[in-house]
Design goal:
This protein has 148 residues and is an alpha+beta fold. It contains three helices and eight strands.
């Protein structure tokens, strides 16, 4: 990809936090934030027609190898949030950045990222570059006028 071309492949989901996701203090347990990230990432990957079933069909699995989370503000249960996801790396690995906002006030409550790498299902080996099928999906999305 031409480094001068910048585009934003993004998604956003709105969720209401559940009681079962809360800890005894009534706020969302930190480990449950990953379910929110996953939902936003699922929608993001569906935009390029490369969700987890398509990944598997293409011969690759994409395990998470790194994650970083900064918890800015506690999120109570029964609270409406917006989870924004943005693809920020795709040529050698898949990195998605996230921001969780209070849906009412637009206040940032959390920011994070996850990094995934392609692993060949057949060889059970990590790929040092993203597979052509994934790069092609991102490029197809880009070519259809989805510029930021």
């Amino acid at each position: 990809m031409n480094p001068e071309i910048q585009f934003a492949l993004e998604s956003e989901v709105t969720l209401i936090t559940s009681f079962q996701d809360a800890d005894p203090m009534g706020v969302i347990y930190h480990g449950n934030f990953f379910r929110f990230f996953e939902e936003a990432r699922r929608v993001l990957m569906d935009k390029i027609d490369y969700g987890y079933l398509k990944m598997n069909e293409s011969g690759y699995m994409w395990p998470i190898i790194d994650t970083r989370v900064k918890y800015v503000k506690a999120i109570p249960f029964n609270h409406q949030i917006r989870v924004h996801a943005k693809l920020t790396e795709w040529e050698n690995r898949l990195r998605v950045d996230y921001v969780i906002y209070d849906a009412q006030t637009n206040q940032r409550m959390c920011k994070a990222h996850t990094t995934q790498v392609a692993v060949s299902i057949k060889e059970q080996e990590m790929c040092f570059a993203s597979p052509k099928v994934f790069i092609d999906k991102v490029n197809q999305w880009h070519q259809h006028g989805k510029l930021a």
